[in-house]
Each structure stands twice: as structure tokens, then as C-alpha cells.
Amino acid sequence: IQISDNWPGYSLDLFTYPQHYYGDLENVLIPHGIIVDRTERLAKDIMQDIGDNDIVVLCVLKGGYKFCADLVEHIKNLSRNSERFISMKVDFVRLKSYHNDQSMQDMQIIGGDDLSKLTGKDIVGTGRTMKVLLNNIEKYKPKMIKVASLLVKRTSRPDGYRPDYYGFEIPDLFVVGYALDYNEHFRDLNHICVINDHGKAKYRV
Ligand code: IMP
Ligand code: MG
């Protein structure tokens, strides 16, 4: 799903969201219900492609935890209602690279012991994070690696990485909610929203 640069988003007044974020957001870019519905379709596409292979879902924390959990839930439900049951293992890695809304040079990968076959991720911004992670996973020579990311940003940067599955292509804006954070804030917001200048200043570190 393409969200164009001139899409104004939904007015915040049309939805509910935590009171502690009143005044900090510009608009609702993607309401929670649409995120969940789109994720269900990604789960179906993934199921179709993996055939009879077992999978290891590698969730990229912290921003990917909501997407990963919903994706796994949908894969479970779809596979329960079909003939073939897909066996799934789940593992987690943590990556950290952002400071305020800027991608930082040094990146840490923490955790993850069972790296193979599939990854579940929150957002591909510049694509730098994903490339570092993939370089690390490829060392384990998995039979197949597929990357699922909820969001892909239209950045002007040339090293743009494209995941195998993604939910939405969005403008090059800093977004929060559905586990995506700005300096650890806004993870407790259900919708994906655009943060405003007031919000950025309030939670700047
Ligand atoms: P990249 O290396 O620029 O692709 O950044 C990827 C990571 O940065 C993601 O996994 C997110 O954790 C974080 N990130 C990038 N853009 C945003 C954003 O708009 N909001 C919140 N986090 C973001
Ligand atoms: Mg972050």
C-alpha cells in the first residue's frame, strides 16, 4: 500500500489515543485496524511462499515487536485453518541506531541464537540497519531468508533496501506508534502517527 507524499493523514479527533500524547502528534498516518488487516494479508503471502518449510521468526526489537506478534498470530491462525501446519520458532535480536530522529553510525546487535529463515521488522528507513543484520544472519547459512517489514520509507538515499514483504510504503517522515518510538516514547500508541515539532522538542534527549 502506497501512502503518497501529499496524504494529509486522518485527524487525531477521529480516533482515541493516550491523553499523555495530546499536543505531540500531527496526524494519524495509519490507523491500528488497517495495520492489523494488512498484516493478515502479509501472513497469507508468507504462508504461500514458504511451502512446507519450518520457520524461525526473528523479531527485531524493540520497534518490531507489535508487528512481529501480530504477524505470528496471523500465521498461526491461517495455518490452523489449513491442511498444513507450519512449525514456528521465535527468536529476538535487539538493534539500536537512532538518536532523536537521526540514524547513527554505530549499531549494536544484541541477542539472537537461532538465526535463520525469516525476519520480522518494524520499519526500513535508510535500510542501513537491515543490511547490517542480514550480513550477520548470512553467516549461519540458512536455507532461506525472507524479510518482512511493516513500513518502507521513501528516502532519497541510494542504498535503499527492499524487504521481501512490506505493508506500507510511506513518505520520508518520522513516525511513531505501534511499537515505533521517538527516544523510547510513543511505543504505547496503537496507531502509526506523525510526530509534530512540539512532540519532538518535548522528548528530545
Ligand atoms: P534505517 O537503518 O534507517 O533503515 O533504520 C531502521 C531502524 O530505525 C528501524 O528499525 C527503526 O527502529 C528506526 N526508525 C527508522 N525510521 C523511524 C521512524 O520514522 N520512527 C521510528 N523509528 C524509526
Ligand atoms: Mg527506535
Automatic annotation (TrEMBL):
<dbReference type="GO" id="GO:0005829">
    <property type="term" value="C:cytosol"/>
</dbReference>
<dbReference type="GO" id="GO:0046872">
    <property type="term" value="F:metal ion binding"/>
</dbReference>
<keyword id="KW-0547">Nucleotide-binding</keyword>
<dbReference type="InterPro" id="IPR000836">
    <property type="entry name" value="PRTase_dom"/>
</dbReference>
<comment type="similarity">
    <text>Belongs to the purine/pyrimidine phosphoribosyltransferase family.</text>
</comment>
<keyword id="KW-0963">Cytoplasm</keyword>
<dbReference type="GO" id="GO:0000166">
    <property type="term" value="F:nucleotide binding"/>
</dbReference>
<protein>
    <recommendedName>
        <fullName>Hypoxanthine phosphoribosyltransferase</fullName>
        <ecNumber>2.4.2.8</ecNumber>
    </recommendedName>
</protein>
<dbReference type="Pfam" id="PF00156">
    <property type="entry name" value="Pribosyltran"/>
</dbReference>
<keyword id="KW-0460">Magnesium</keyword>
<dbReference type="GO" id="GO:0032264">
    <property type="term" value="P:IMP salvage"/>
</dbReference>
<keyword id="KW-0328">Glycosyltransferase</keyword>
<dbReference type="GO" id="GO:0006166">
    <property type="term" value="P:purine ribonucleoside salvage"/>
</dbReference>
<dbReference type="InterPro" id="IPR029057">
    <property type="entry name" value="PRTase-like"/>
</dbReference>
<keyword id="KW-0479">Metal-binding</keyword>
<dbReference type="GO" id="GO:0004422">
    <property type="term" value="F:hypoxanthine phosphoribosyltransferase activity"/>
</dbReference>
<keyword id="KW-0808">Transferase</keyword>
<comment type="pathway">
    <text>Purine metabolism; IMP biosynthesis via salvage pathway; IMP from hypoxanthine: step 1/1.</text>
</comment>
<dbReference type="InterPro" id="IPR005904">
    <property type="entry name" value="Hxn_phspho_trans"/>
</dbReference>
<feature type="domain" description="Phosphoribosyltransferase">
    <location>
        <begin position="34"/>
        <end position="182"/>
    </location>
</feature>
<dbReference type="InterPro" id="IPR050408">
    <property type="entry name" value="HGPRT"/>
</dbReference>
<keyword id="KW-0660">Purine salvage</keyword>
